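Dear support,

Our group has been running a series of protein-ligand predictions, and this particular one with coenzyme A is the one our PI (initials K.S.) wants archived with full inputs and outputs. We had some confusion internally about which version of the output was final, so please treat the block below as the authoritative record. The input we submitted was:
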Amino acid sequence: MTGEKDILTLLASIHPVQREGEYVYVLWPYGRPLAGGIEAAVREAEGLTVVLPRAEADQLDLRYDFVAAWITLQVHSSLEAVGLTAAVSAALTDARISCNVLAGFHHDHLLVPVADADRAMEILHELSAQSSDQPAPQLILRTERPEDRPAILELTAAAFSVSPATGLPVDGEPAEVGLLKELFDCDEYLPEFSIVAEQNGEVVGHVISTRAWVGDHELLGLGPIGVVPRLQRHGIGSALMQESVARGNAAGERGIALLGSPEYYSRFGFVPSVSLGIEPPHAEWGDFFQLLPLAVWPGGIHGTFRYAGPFERL
Ligand SMILES: CC(C)(COP(=O)(O)OP(=O)(O)OC[C@H]1O[C@@H](n2cnc3c(N)ncnc32)[C@H](O)[C@@H]1OP(=O)(O)O)[C@@H](O)C(=O)NCCC(=O)NCCS
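Confirmed final output from the archive:
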């Protein structure tokens, strides 16, 4: 048996390649002669499962649920290699992408939901890059420049392609992209609070805070914040949050409010806004609407929080 067995070498050289087309799993009708371009088959006591192109399943009038993209890891892995499947599945699971693995004699093959194919490819490339000997690239946090805008909108679309609220894929352009375009153009836009994270010359994360109010008191409303999916959970979001807080304090801002998971934002000191006497713009947001009092928080501010105009039109 030949083929690479060392897990780091394997991961560094997985070379994922996506095959053309869409594939489906079907239960082959009992007694029917095999037909069509079957790509994989598993015989079980209950019947024969085959994987074939969706178009052929349609032509043969076969039923299916799961429509997959087919990604081949081009590395020649030994069937005795330990850990490759586990590492790849773990990386995709972290990104909430379901994945069926087929092991061939030469390569491993991943069947992932069609809608997640691009993200899965990004994650696999990232896994491969992490496993090579390259030192981690430096992260630069800086104020956005006009030429960053297309990259910011693209990464925002990718970051919000799965809804943080429901965990389900979003149809069409996520609402956060349109919101961001309007925030860039509105009166409440504050240039120094639109911050990008850059790595190797690529814009990999972005956060914006815009002018907001409680009564006549000026505050900051933070959001959207996004990180390219393949680099999420590497500390980039935290770095953008900490930079926003540092800039807020340096500018003498009073506080920052946002809508998001208390589990994530409490680590930066955010608390439910109602605990400070500030009502969310929509009562049903409850404890998900949070506020971070900054160094010069005056206390005694009560009322309903009002975001920049574009949020009202959401
Ligand atoms: C949310 C987001 C900006 C965080 O950035 P990030 O670079 O992935 O996060 P970090 O690496 O700094 O922090 C990772 C930690 O945050 C946690 N985390 C990330 N998103 C979370 C969420 N929505 N809820 C709870 N915890 C979350 C992770 O579990 C991890 O925790 P750990 O350190 O205890 O393991 C990024 O994941 C993203 O773009 N998500 C999609 C868009 C989105 O949800 N935006 C925010 C809407 S409020």
